[in-house]
Design a protein that fits this description.
Elements (H helix, E strand, L loop, with lengths): L5 E7 L3 H16 E7 L3 H5 L2 H6 L13 E3 L8 H11 L3 E4 L6 H6 L1 H21 L4 E7 L23 H20 L3 E6 L2 E2 L8 H10 L4 E4 L5 E2 L2 E2 H13 L4 E6 L5 E2 H12 L5 E4 L14 H7 L7 H13 L8
Parallel strand pairs: 1-2, 1-4, 2-3, 4-5, 5-6, 6-11, 7-10, 8-13
Antiparallel strand pairs: 9-12
Length: about 325
Amino acid sequence: MKAKKLKIMTILGTRPEIIRLSAILPKLDIFFDHKIVFTRQSFSYELSDIFFKELNLRKPDYLLDVKAETLGGQIANIFSETEKVLVKEKPDAIVHLAAKADTRKAVLSPYEYISVNIEGTLNLLECAREFGIKKFVFISSSSIYGNKNSAPFSEEDQTDFPLSPYGASKKAAEILIYTYYHNFNLPAVCLRVFNAYGERMRPNLVLSIWLKKILNGEPIEMSGDGTRRRDFTYVGDTVNAIMLALKKPLDFEIINIGNSRPLTLNQLLRVLEKAVGTKAIVQKRPSHKASVEQTHASTSKAKRVLGWKPLMPIDEGIKRFVLWVRDGGFENIR
């Protein structure tokens, strides 16, 4: 007799999530009964055949049979609508990816980040409590670590000093999630993802910006002297971590998801230049105060608890990203 698939609901919030869906859907749909929920009404149009026809793009295969639903606004303001979807779908698990995600913009517009990332998470937790959700997987961030001199970063390290309201909102969300585990026995896993990159990554991240400018023959901006270090995690490795977090019988865990081999920005640029086959024109600018000096994940807990390890070398991951962009990608969709 064939085992019943775990029914999961993935909550997505921002426009680039459409672009990233192809990295998530194929694997999740194989192993789970999977439903996508968007938190903005515009997604119903942006998933339509008309939308892709207007852009002169072929609708990708992974969107042909998407089981999707749209809500009327941000997760901070749509509790009743989320309830309706849960009544209808009766999921076993929630994967919470909806968030405002930009450390610099969060410094200038903190209220929206606090509202969406904290109040929105609270709404989803209340829905999870009310409907007896069996697993809550939350995508957290390495931003909560702030500036740390010692590396690699461990889940046991102090995280009281993030540099941006974005990092603070992710830390607050983790704490809220723990209280729901403690008080209502909601099994939950918080995945602290370190600089996710790859095909369909957000267009406002450094790799996307640099690549577009290099291909157009425009100068790129280098933050500071290029010695800041970043730990980059390939999107496929991130998806594997989500799948394992859903499958494993865990109570409450916070787990780093990173490559654990950080590069300086100068090294990252050399890898990108090699993949493109073109040298960049570099202009230096002062570093932003909300930018941390380094990110470096310890992944020993991920290996021990999830059986997870990063599989994609940074050189190959960036090569795949460059090929995807050169093949057209979805660069018209923003």
